[in-house]
Backbone:
């Protein structure tokens, strides 16, 4: 039987009567449950990444699908891949119900259209090489469920991330990632614990995948884009440590080649 735990009444009552300190302590008390819930889902996250990596090595892409907060978090994680790992923006793609306008302004009814998600995916010429991950705290968003169902019917690997066990969305996913964070501090406000848990899981999926794809060396982002002075300085210090050369020489080498990895390879004659 499917029960929306994420919609159940908060464990905290009379919020409007609490002091600011009591409110903050209560929110923090609930937030501490998130990491524990995510830890319990690691076996499913591991399975997804283990299947995702070879698909990406074969030219596949990762698509996130969601509405509202869930959609925004998918777009956020996807947008961080190019600057962090130096990968093209076409590798990890976040799609939100209602399009980019919905990132700032809710688009009424977009998430209730069961056919729209698959239609949005088709604009990317999606194929069996790709992977689709649906994100919905409730696990009941029609936009996401419809997309996963059609993707699966077309031989595409699917996964879901939800805050409720045995959800309709999970039924349409090859891999169901369920992080059961319990009722929200403000009843039903899934932007809180559910959103925090989703962000943690998305970080885990893409970071572990990018490391497996060779985009990190040691513990450093050697392929990051040099888009500002801070990142140029970070990349320069990577080279001074890795190659044991002076800072100025390292910076010139970095700027010449455009990334720490390319600079290191060039210096070592690879």
Residues:
């Amino acid at each position: 039987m499917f029960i929306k735990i994420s919609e159940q009444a908060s464990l905290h009552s009379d919020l409007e009567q609490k002091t600011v300190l009591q409110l903050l302590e209560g929110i923090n008390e609930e937030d501490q449950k998130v990491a524990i819930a995510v830890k319990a889902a690691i076996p499913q996250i591991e399975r997804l990444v283990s299947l995702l990596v070879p698909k990406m090595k074969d030219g596949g892409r990762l698509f996130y699908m969601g509405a509202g907060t869930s959609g925004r978090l998918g777009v956020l994680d996807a947008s961080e891949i190019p600057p962090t790992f130096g990968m093209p923006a076409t590798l990890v793609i976040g799609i939100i119900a209602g399009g980019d306008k919905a990132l700032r302004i809710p688009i009424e009814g977009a998430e209730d259209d069961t056919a729209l998600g698959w239609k949005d995916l088709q604009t990317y010429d999606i194929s069996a090489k790709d992977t689709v991950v649906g994100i919905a705290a409730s696990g009941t968003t029609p936009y996401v469920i419809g997309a996963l169902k059609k993707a699966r019917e077309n031989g595409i690997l699917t996964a879901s991330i939800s805050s409720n066990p045995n959800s309709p969305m999970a039924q349409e996913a090859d891999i169901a990632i369920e992080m059961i964070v319990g009722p929200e501090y403000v009843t039903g406000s899934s932007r809180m614990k559910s959103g925090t848990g989703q962000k943690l899981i998305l970080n885990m999926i893409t970071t572990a995948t990018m490391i497996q794809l060779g985009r990190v060396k040691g513990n450093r982002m050697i392929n990051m884009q040099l888009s500002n002075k801070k990142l140029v300085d970070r990349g320069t210090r990577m080279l001074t440590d890795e190659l044991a050369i002076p800072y100025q020489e390292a910076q010139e080498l970095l700027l010449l080649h455009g990334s720490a990895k390319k600079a290191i390879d060039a210096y070592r004659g690879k």
